[in-house]
Amino acid sequence: MARFQYQGRAQRGQPVSGKLEAASQDAVAAQLIGRGITPVQIDEISTGASFLHQINDRLGANKVREVDLIMLCRQMYTITKAGIPLTRGIRGLAASVRHAYLQEVLSDVADRLEAGSSLSLAMRNHPKAFDPLFVNMIAVGESSGQLDEVFKQIGFYIERDSETRKRVKSALRYPSFVILALAAALVIVNIFVIPEFARLFANFNAELPLVTKILIGFSNLFVNYWPYLLLCTGALIGAAWHYLRTEQGALRWGYYKMRLPIVGDLIERALMARYARTFGLMLRAGVPITQSLALCAAAIDNPWLEQKILGIRQGIERGDSLLRTHLAASMFTPLVLQMIAVGEESGQVEALLTEVAEFYEREVDYDLKTLTDRIEPLLIVCMAAFVLILALGIFLPMWNLYEVQSG
Protein backbone atom coordinates (compact mmCIF):
# COMPACT_ATOMS: atom_id res chain seq x y z
CA MET A 1 0.00 0.00 0.00
CA ALA A 2 1.19 3.50 -0.84
CA ARG A 3 1.49 6.43 1.55
CA PHE A 4 -0.36 9.69 0.88
CA GLN A 5 -0.10 13.15 2.39
CA TYR A 6 -3.38 15.01 2.62
CA GLN A 7 -4.74 18.44 3.45
CA GLY A 8 -8.38 19.05 4.26
CA ARG A 9 -10.99 20.85 6.30
CA ALA A 10 -12.74 19.60 9.41
CA GLN A 11 -16.47 19.99 10.03
CA ARG A 12 -15.96 23.44 11.55
CA GLY A 13 -13.61 24.55 8.78
CA GLN A 14 -10.31 24.07 10.61
CA PRO A 15 -7.41 23.05 8.35
CA VAL A 16 -6.10 19.54 8.97
CA SER A 17 -3.22 17.62 7.45
CA GLY A 18 -1.53 14.29 7.90
CA LYS A 19 -0.43 11.04 6.26
CA LEU A 20 -2.34 7.84 5.49
CA GLU A 21 -1.65 4.47 3.93
CA ALA A 22 -4.13 3.33 1.30
CA ALA A 23 -4.40 1.65 -2.07
CA SER A 24 -5.27 4.83 -3.98
CA GLN A 25 -6.19 8.49 -3.64
CA ASP A 26 -9.87 7.56 -3.77
CA ALA A 27 -9.39 5.24 -0.79
CA VAL A 28 -7.73 8.09 1.14
CA ALA A 29 -10.60 10.43 0.27
CA ALA A 30 -13.10 7.81 1.46
CA GLN A 31 -11.28 7.44 4.77
CA LEU A 32 -11.18 11.21 5.27
CA ILE A 33 -14.87 11.62 4.47
CA GLY A 34 -15.62 8.82 6.91
CA ARG A 35 -13.83 10.83 9.60
CA GLY A 36 -15.79 13.97 8.76
CA ILE A 37 -12.91 15.65 6.91
CA THR A 38 -13.36 17.29 3.51
CA PRO A 39 -10.23 16.51 1.44
CA VAL A 40 -8.64 19.49 -0.28
CA GLN A 41 -5.41 18.02 -1.59
CA ILE A 42 -4.07 14.44 -1.63
CA ASP A 43 -0.54 13.73 -2.85
CA GLU A 44 1.23 10.40 -3.02
CA ILE A 45 4.51 10.31 -1.11
CA SER A 46 7.41 9.41 -3.38
CA THR A 47 8.93 5.95 -3.25
CA GLY A 48 12.21 7.37 -1.92
CA ALA A 49 10.49 9.16 0.95
CA SER A 50 8.41 6.07 1.75
CA PHE A 51 11.54 3.91 1.67
CA LEU A 52 13.30 6.38 3.96
CA HIS A 53 10.35 6.18 6.36
CA GLN A 54 10.66 2.38 6.43
CA ILE A 55 14.40 2.62 7.11
CA ASN A 56 13.78 5.05 9.96
CA ASP A 57 11.18 2.68 11.34
CA ARG A 58 13.61 -0.27 11.24
CA LEU A 59 16.43 1.76 12.80
CA GLY A 60 14.19 3.00 15.59
CA ALA A 61 14.15 6.65 14.52
CA ASN A 62 10.34 6.59 14.64
CA LYS A 63 10.30 5.20 18.17
CA VAL A 64 8.59 7.47 20.67
CA ARG A 65 11.00 7.89 23.59
CA GLU A 66 10.02 8.03 27.22
CA VAL A 67 11.04 11.69 27.46
CA ASP A 68 8.62 12.47 24.60
CA LEU A 69 5.78 10.76 26.45
CA ILE A 70 6.63 12.58 29.69
CA MET A 71 6.52 15.95 27.94
CA LEU A 72 3.30 14.96 26.17
CA CYS A 73 1.65 14.00 29.47
CA ARG A 74 2.70 17.25 31.12
CA GLN A 75 1.40 19.31 28.21
CA MET A 76 -1.85 17.34 28.05
CA TYR A 77 -2.29 17.83 31.80
CA THR A 78 -1.98 21.60 31.31
CA ILE A 79 -4.38 21.54 28.36
CA THR A 80 -7.07 19.49 30.09
CA LYS A 81 -6.66 21.38 33.37
CA ALA A 82 -7.17 24.70 31.56
CA GLY A 83 -10.31 23.41 29.82
CA ILE A 84 -8.93 23.74 26.28
CA PRO A 85 -10.79 21.46 23.80
CA LEU A 86 -8.83 18.28 23.18
CA THR A 87 -8.82 18.60 19.39
CA ARG A 88 -7.48 22.14 19.45
CA GLY A 89 -4.92 21.31 22.13
CA ILE A 90 -3.63 18.19 20.34
CA ARG A 91 -3.33 20.05 17.04
CA GLY A 92 -1.32 22.73 18.81
CA LEU A 93 0.96 20.04 20.25
CA ALA A 94 1.34 18.40 16.84
CA ALA A 95 2.46 21.73 15.39
CA SER A 96 5.07 22.26 18.12
CA VAL A 97 6.46 18.71 18.45
CA ARG A 98 9.82 18.13 16.72
CA HIS A 99 9.52 14.34 16.62
CA ALA A 100 8.24 13.66 13.07
CA TYR A 101 6.53 10.34 13.85
CA LEU A 102 4.87 11.66 17.03
CA GLN A 103 3.66 14.65 15.02
CA GLU A 104 1.97 12.28 12.57
CA VAL A 105 0.44 10.31 15.44
CA LEU A 106 -0.98 13.42 17.14
CA SER A 107 -2.40 14.70 13.85
CA ASP A 108 -4.14 11.39 13.27
CA VAL A 109 -5.46 11.36 16.85
CA ALA A 110 -6.89 14.86 16.31
CA ASP A 111 -8.49 13.73 13.04
CA ARG A 112 -10.14 10.79 14.77
CA LEU A 113 -11.39 13.02 17.58
CA GLU A 114 -13.02 15.31 15.05
CA ALA A 115 -14.63 12.26 13.44
CA GLY A 116 -16.28 11.42 16.78
CA SER A 117 -13.86 8.92 18.27
CA SER A 118 -12.85 8.98 21.91
CA LEU A 119 -9.27 9.84 22.90
CA SER A 120 -8.46 6.33 24.13
CA LEU A 121 -9.77 4.69 20.95
CA ALA A 122 -7.83 7.16 18.80
CA MET A 123 -4.63 6.39 20.73
CA ARG A 124 -5.26 2.64 20.58
CA ASN A 125 -4.67 2.78 16.81
CA HIS A 126 -1.00 3.70 17.47
CA PRO A 127 0.46 0.89 19.62
CA LYS A 128 4.03 1.92 18.73
CA ALA A 129 3.50 5.23 20.51
CA PHE A 130 1.03 4.34 23.29
CA ASP A 131 1.21 1.01 25.10
CA PRO A 132 -1.89 -0.74 26.58
CA LEU A 133 -1.17 0.67 30.05
CA PHE A 134 -1.21 4.23 28.70
CA VAL A 135 -4.38 3.70 26.63
CA ASN A 136 -6.33 2.01 29.43
CA MET A 137 -5.43 4.77 31.86
CA ILE A 138 -6.73 7.34 29.36
CA ALA A 139 -9.96 5.35 29.00
CA VAL A 140 -10.42 5.36 32.79
CA GLY A 141 -9.75 9.10 32.90
CA GLU A 142 -12.36 9.72 30.20
CA SER A 143 -15.01 7.64 31.95
CA SER A 144 -14.35 9.17 35.38
CA GLY A 145 -13.99 12.78 34.18
CA GLN A 146 -10.48 13.04 35.66
CA LEU A 147 -8.44 13.07 32.47
CA ASP A 148 -6.14 15.80 33.76
CA GLU A 149 -5.21 13.84 36.90
CA VAL A 150 -4.66 10.68 34.85
CA PHE A 151 -2.21 12.49 32.56
CA LYS A 152 -0.41 13.79 35.64
CA GLN A 153 -0.18 10.31 37.16
CA ILE A 154 1.01 8.70 33.91
CA GLY A 155 3.70 11.35 33.45
CA PHE A 156 4.94 10.84 37.02
CA TYR A 157 4.96 7.04 36.60
CA ILE A 158 6.89 7.11 33.31
CA GLU A 159 9.39 9.60 34.75
CA ARG A 160 10.13 7.53 37.87
CA ASP A 161 10.40 4.32 35.86
CA SER A 162 12.72 5.99 33.34
CA GLU A 163 14.95 7.40 36.10
CA THR A 164 15.32 3.98 37.71
CA ARG A 165 16.36 2.33 34.46
CA LYS A 166 18.81 5.14 33.67
CA ARG A 167 20.44 4.73 37.08
CA VAL A 168 20.81 0.98 36.54
CA LYS A 169 22.43 1.53 33.12
CA SER A 170 24.70 4.24 34.52
CA ALA A 171 25.85 2.01 37.37
CA LEU A 172 26.62 -0.89 34.99
CA ARG A 173 28.41 1.28 32.42
CA TYR A 174 31.81 1.30 34.14
CA PRO A 175 31.96 -2.49 34.78
CA SER A 176 30.89 -3.10 31.17
CA PHE A 177 33.71 -0.95 29.81
CA VAL A 178 36.24 -2.72 32.03
CA ILE A 179 35.07 -6.16 30.90
CA LEU A 180 35.18 -5.13 27.24
CA ALA A 181 38.68 -3.68 27.66
CA LEU A 182 39.82 -6.88 29.38
CA ALA A 183 38.41 -9.01 26.56
CA ALA A 184 40.09 -6.80 23.94
CA ALA A 185 43.41 -7.04 25.79
CA LEU A 186 43.07 -10.83 25.95
CA VAL A 187 42.56 -11.05 22.18
CA ILE A 188 45.46 -8.66 21.38
CA VAL A 189 47.88 -10.46 23.71
CA ASN A 190 47.01 -13.87 22.28
CA ILE A 191 47.33 -12.74 18.66
CA PHE A 192 50.29 -10.34 18.71
CA VAL A 193 52.30 -10.72 21.93
CA ILE A 194 52.50 -14.38 22.89
CA PRO A 195 53.41 -15.66 19.37
CA GLU A 196 56.56 -13.50 19.41
CA PHE A 197 57.64 -14.93 22.76
CA ALA A 198 56.77 -18.45 21.55
CA ARG A 199 59.17 -18.07 18.59
CA LEU A 200 61.85 -16.75 20.97
CA PHE A 201 61.49 -19.70 23.34
CA ALA A 202 61.48 -22.20 20.44
CA ASN A 203 64.98 -21.09 19.37
CA PHE A 204 66.46 -22.28 22.69
CA ASN A 205 64.70 -25.67 22.81
CA ALA A 206 64.22 -25.19 26.55
CA GLU A 207 61.63 -26.91 28.73
CA LEU A 208 58.80 -24.44 29.27
CA PRO A 209 56.70 -24.10 32.42
CA LEU A 210 53.11 -25.37 32.39
CA VAL A 211 51.65 -21.85 32.50
CA THR A 212 53.65 -20.87 29.41
CA LYS A 213 52.56 -24.00 27.54
CA ILE A 214 48.91 -23.19 28.32
CA LEU A 215 49.33 -19.58 27.12
CA ILE A 216 51.04 -20.68 23.90
CA GLY A 217 48.34 -23.29 23.32
CA PHE A 218 45.59 -20.65 23.67
CA SER A 219 47.55 -18.30 21.42
CA ASN A 220 47.90 -20.98 18.72
CA LEU A 221 44.16 -21.59 19.00
CA PHE A 222 43.48 -17.88 18.43
CA VAL A 223 45.96 -17.49 15.58
CA ASN A 224 45.32 -20.70 13.65
CA TYR A 225 41.63 -21.28 14.25
CA TRP A 226 40.19 -17.77 14.60
CA PRO A 227 37.60 -18.28 11.79
CA TYR A 228 36.21 -21.33 13.61
CA LEU A 229 36.25 -19.45 16.91
CA LEU A 230 34.29 -16.59 15.36
CA LEU A 231 31.86 -19.04 13.79
CA CYS A 232 31.35 -20.93 17.06
CA THR A 233 30.93 -17.67 19.01
CA GLY A 234 28.39 -16.39 16.51
CA ALA A 235 26.54 -19.72 16.59
CA LEU A 236 26.41 -19.71 20.38
CA ILE A 237 25.17 -16.11 20.49
CA GLY A 238 22.55 -16.87 17.82
CA ALA A 239 21.39 -20.03 19.61
CA ALA A 240 21.16 -18.17 22.93
CA TRP A 241 19.26 -15.29 21.30
CA HIS A 242 16.84 -17.72 19.63
CA TYR A 243 16.33 -19.67 22.87
CA LEU A 244 15.63 -16.51 24.87
CA ARG A 245 12.95 -15.56 22.33
CA THR A 246 11.09 -18.82 22.97
CA GLU A 247 8.52 -18.96 25.75
CA GLN A 248 10.50 -21.42 27.87
CA GLY A 249 13.77 -19.53 27.39
CA ALA A 250 12.20 -16.19 28.30
CA LEU A 251 10.68 -17.70 31.44
CA ARG A 252 14.00 -19.24 32.52
CA TRP A 253 15.95 -16.02 31.89
CA GLY A 254 13.29 -14.01 33.73
CA TYR A 255 13.80 -16.25 36.78
CA TYR A 256 17.60 -16.51 36.70
CA LYS A 257 18.02 -12.79 36.02
CA MET A 258 16.82 -12.14 39.57
CA ARG A 259 19.27 -14.74 40.94
CA LEU A 260 22.40 -13.23 39.41
CA PRO A 261 25.23 -12.43 41.86
CA ILE A 262 25.51 -8.79 42.99
CA VAL A 263 22.87 -7.37 40.60
CA GLY A 264 20.12 -10.01 40.93
CA ASP A 265 18.75 -8.65 44.19
CA LEU A 266 18.82 -5.14 42.76
CA ILE A 267 16.84 -6.22 39.68
CA GLU A 268 14.27 -8.01 41.84
CA ARG A 269 13.66 -4.97 44.04
CA ALA A 270 13.40 -2.69 41.01
CA LEU A 271 10.75 -5.02 39.53
CA MET A 272 8.89 -5.11 42.85
CA ALA A 273 8.87 -1.31 42.92
CA ARG A 274 7.57 -1.22 39.34
CA TYR A 275 4.82 -3.74 40.14
CA ALA A 276 3.73 -1.93 43.29
CA ARG A 277 3.69 1.49 41.61
CA THR A 278 1.83 0.24 38.53
CA PHE A 279 -0.75 -1.70 40.56
CA GLY A 280 -1.30 1.25 42.92
CA LEU A 281 -1.63 3.63 39.97
CA MET A 282 -4.25 1.42 38.34
CA LEU A 283 -6.29 1.03 41.51
CA ARG A 284 -6.14 4.76 42.30
CA ALA A 285 -7.43 5.54 38.80
CA GLY A 286 -10.39 3.23 39.32
CA VAL A 287 -9.37 0.35 37.04
CA PRO A 288 -10.90 -3.00 38.12
CA ILE A 289 -8.51 -5.31 39.97
CA THR A 290 -8.46 -8.04 37.31
CA GLN A 291 -7.80 -5.53 34.53
CA SER A 292 -5.16 -3.81 36.69
CA LEU A 293 -3.31 -7.09 37.18
CA ALA A 294 -3.40 -7.80 33.43
CA LEU A 295 -1.89 -4.38 32.73
CA CYS A 296 0.73 -4.87 35.46
CA ALA A 297 1.71 -8.21 33.89
CA ALA A 298 2.21 -6.51 30.53
CA ALA A 299 4.24 -3.66 32.06
CA ILE A 300 6.53 -5.71 34.33
CA ASP A 301 9.00 -6.62 31.54
CA ASN A 302 9.80 -10.03 33.02
CA PRO A 303 8.05 -13.13 31.59
CA TRP A 304 8.47 -15.15 34.79
CA LEU A 305 6.89 -12.44 36.94
CA GLU A 306 4.28 -11.85 34.23
CA GLN A 307 3.19 -15.48 34.51
CA LYS A 308 2.98 -15.18 38.30
CA ILE A 309 0.88 -12.00 38.10
CA LEU A 310 -1.51 -13.62 35.63
CA GLY A 311 -1.82 -16.49 38.13
CA ILE A 312 -2.77 -13.93 40.79
CA ARG A 313 -5.41 -12.56 38.42
CA GLN A 314 -6.87 -16.05 37.95
CA GLY A 315 -7.00 -16.46 41.73
CA ILE A 316 -8.86 -13.15 42.10
CA GLU A 317 -11.34 -14.25 39.43
CA ARG A 318 -11.96 -17.43 41.44
CA GLY A 319 -12.83 -15.30 44.47
CA ASP A 320 -9.59 -15.48 46.48
CA SER A 321 -8.30 -12.45 48.37
CA LEU A 322 -5.33 -10.36 47.30
CA LEU A 323 -3.24 -11.59 50.23
CA ARG A 324 -3.96 -15.26 49.57
CA THR A 325 -3.18 -15.02 45.84
CA HIS A 326 0.06 -13.12 46.51
CA LEU A 327 1.08 -15.71 49.10
CA ALA A 328 0.41 -18.50 46.60
CA ALA A 329 2.57 -16.77 43.99
CA SER A 330 5.68 -17.16 46.22
CA MET A 331 7.39 -14.19 44.60
CA PHE A 332 6.81 -11.30 46.98
CA THR A 333 8.80 -10.25 50.01
CA PRO A 334 7.21 -10.17 53.48
CA LEU A 335 7.04 -6.37 53.32
CA VAL A 336 4.81 -6.43 50.23
CA LEU A 337 2.60 -9.14 51.75
CA GLN A 338 2.20 -7.22 55.03
CA MET A 339 1.30 -4.04 53.18
CA ILE A 340 -1.29 -5.88 51.06
CA ALA A 341 -2.80 -7.48 54.17
CA VAL A 342 -3.09 -4.11 55.96
CA GLY A 343 -4.40 -2.48 52.81
CA GLU A 344 -7.14 -5.07 52.37
CA GLU A 345 -8.22 -4.65 55.98
CA SER A 346 -8.26 -0.85 55.80
CA GLY A 347 -9.47 -0.50 52.20
CA GLN A 348 -6.36 1.50 51.21
CA VAL A 349 -4.46 -0.97 49.07
CA GLU A 350 -3.47 1.64 46.49
CA ALA A 351 -2.00 4.01 49.11
CA LEU A 352 0.03 1.28 50.79
CA LEU A 353 1.25 -0.05 47.45
CA THR A 354 2.53 3.44 46.64
CA GLU A 355 4.43 3.45 49.95
CA VAL A 356 5.90 0.03 49.09
CA ALA A 357 7.02 1.36 45.70
CA GLU A 358 8.67 4.40 47.29
CA PHE A 359 10.41 2.19 49.88
CA TYR A 360 11.84 -0.10 47.20
CA GLU A 361 12.82 2.84 45.00
CA ARG A 362 14.80 4.34 47.89
CA GLU A 363 16.55 1.00 48.41
CA VAL A 364 17.31 0.71 44.70
CA ASP A 365 18.72 4.26 44.66
CA TYR A 366 21.03 3.44 47.58
CA ASP A 367 22.15 0.14 46.06
CA LEU A 368 22.84 1.81 42.73
CA LYS A 369 25.12 4.33 44.42
CA THR A 370 27.11 1.50 46.02
CA LEU A 371 26.92 -0.95 43.11
CA THR A 372 30.19 0.20 41.54
CA ASP A 373 31.94 -0.09 44.91
CA ARG A 374 30.78 -3.71 45.18
CA ILE A 375 31.75 -4.64 41.63
CA GLU A 376 35.17 -2.94 41.65
CA PRO A 377 36.90 -5.52 43.94
CA LEU A 378 35.74 -8.35 41.66
CA LEU A 379 37.03 -6.51 38.59
CA ILE A 380 40.36 -5.81 40.28
CA VAL A 381 40.76 -9.50 41.19
CA CYS A 382 40.01 -10.54 37.57
CA MET A 383 42.51 -8.04 36.17
CA ALA A 384 45.13 -9.05 38.72
CA ALA A 385 44.67 -12.73 37.83
CA PHE A 386 45.01 -11.92 34.13
CA VAL A 387 48.21 -9.93 34.67
CA LEU A 388 49.65 -12.59 37.04
CA ILE A 389 49.06 -15.44 34.59
CA LEU A 390 50.50 -13.39 31.73
CA ALA A 391 53.56 -12.39 33.78
CA LEU A 392 54.24 -15.93 35.03
CA GLY A 393 53.79 -17.40 31.56
CA ILE A 394 56.20 -14.95 29.90
CA PHE A 395 58.81 -14.12 32.55
CA LEU A 396 59.34 -17.56 34.15
CA PRO A 397 60.88 -19.08 30.98
CA MET A 398 62.89 -15.87 30.42
CA TRP A 399 64.44 -16.26 33.86
CA ASN A 400 65.16 -19.93 33.09
CA LEU A 401 66.86 -18.95 29.83
CA TYR A 402 68.97 -16.37 31.65
CA GLU A 403 70.08 -18.97 34.18
CA VAL A 404 70.97 -21.37 31.35
CA GLN A 405 73.06 -18.74 29.58
CA SER A 406 74.75 -17.69 32.83
CA GLY A 407 75.59 -21.31 33.66
The CATH class of the largest domain? Mainly Alpha
Number of helices: 17
CATH superfamily of the largest domain: Type II secretion system (T2SS), domain F
Globally, the shape reads extended
Low-confidence stretches: none
Instruction: Give the proportion of residues in helices.
Output: over 70%
What Rg do the Cα atoms give? 30 Å
Q: What is the topology, as strand order, of the major beta sheet?
A: 2-1-3
Beta strand %: 5-15%
Largest sheet: 3 strands, antiparallel
- The CATH architecture term of the largest domain is Up-down Bundle
Order of helices and strands: EEHEHHHHHHHHHHHHHHHH
Which class of secondary structure composition applies to the elements? mainly alpha
Question: Count the strands?
Answer: 3
- The span between the termini is 85 Å
Q: How many structurally independent domains?
A: 2
Mean pLDDT: 81
Which short descriptors sum up this protein?
407 residues; mainly alpha
What do you see in this structure?
This protein has two domains: 2-130, Receptor-associated Protein, CATH 1.20.81; 143-407, Receptor-associated Protein, CATH 1.20.81. The protein is built from 17 helices and three strands. The chain has helices at residues 25-34, 47-59, 66-82, 86-96, 100-114, 119-124, 132-144, 147-202, 210-224, 226-245, 247-256, 264-285, 289-299, 303-318, 322-329, 334-346, 349-406, and strands at residues 2-9, 15-22, 38-44. It is extended, with a radius of gyration of 30 Å. The model has no long low-confidence stretch (mean pLDDT 81).
